[in-house]
Amino acid sequence: MMTSMLAIGCATGRSGPDAPLVDEKYSLKQDREALANLRKEIPEEVRRDNDEKAFMAEMMSDLSRTPMDVRNQFTRILTKKRELFSKDMTKTREKFSSDIKAKREEFSRQQTSARTSFAGQKKTADERSDFYNRLDSERREFNSEQQQKRDEFESDMRDKRKNFDDYIRAKTDEFNQLHRDYIKRYDEDKKARADLKKQAEEKQRQMQKSVDAEYEAIRKQSPTYLESQGQ
């Protein structure tokens, strides 16, 4: 007996009343960790696509929900995603406009400071011409850079909007395909339930009919009177 207990203690790596029943390597947690590690090896785009497919499949796993309920849920989700996207786009645009404004104000302060400092100095006409030509050149270059940044920003925003719309369109098409299959399964399940209910009701009617027939047969029998004792 002692030998057996020692053997068990060696198998688990611990002994005593608080020792686990099995070694840690046999724990189911290891399997979950292995799955988690395996999941990490899947590319992010593939993993996200799989998660989205699983999410939509889960939406249509309960046949007790009407197809309209399922579609309404999907529509609500899309609405929230569109609102979130628009909100993020607005924040991005506001931040860009704020940065552009701050840079323009800083540039204007620098130009004003340079003109003020230059005005207090004795300069020749050529020096004054060169100075103001340089300021004008810097201003044109600054405006050109700002316009280029704005054009790039607007192009990036259009790409983001297009990518989002394409994504929503693709997911809607994917949902519609799954939803058509769900409608078919829902109708088949509804018909099967109706058939089972009809069969149960028919069985109940037949049982009641049989009981009524037996009762009618008994009712038609001649009554039997028990003779009174003492006669």
How would you characterize the overall build of this protein?
Residues 95-165, 194-231 are annotated as: Disordered. Residues 109-119, 221-231 have a biased composition (Polar residues). By secondary structure, the chain is mostly helical. It has a domain at 66-187. Helix content is 82%, strand content 0%. It contains five helices and no strands. The chain has helices spanning 2-12, 28-40, 44-59, 67-119, 125-220. Helix 4 (67-119) runs antiparallel to helix 5. The longest helix is centred in the C-terminal third of the chain and has 96 residues, at 125-220. The radius of gyration is 41 Å and the shape is rod-shaped. The model is unreliable at 1-13 (pLDDT under 50).
Label the overall shape: rod-shaped
Order of helices and strands: HHHHH
Quickly count the helices: 5
How would you state the average pLDDT, rounded?
A: 81
Beta-strand residue percentage: under 5%
**Total number of beta strands:** 0
Cα Rg = 41 Å
Q: What is the topology?
A:
Elements: H1 2-12, H2 28-40, H3 44-59, H4 67-119, H5 125-220
Quick summary:
This protein has 231 residues and is mainly alpha-helical. The protein has five helices and no strands.
Keywords, separated by commas or semicolons:
231 residues, mainly alpha, 0% strand, disordered N terminus
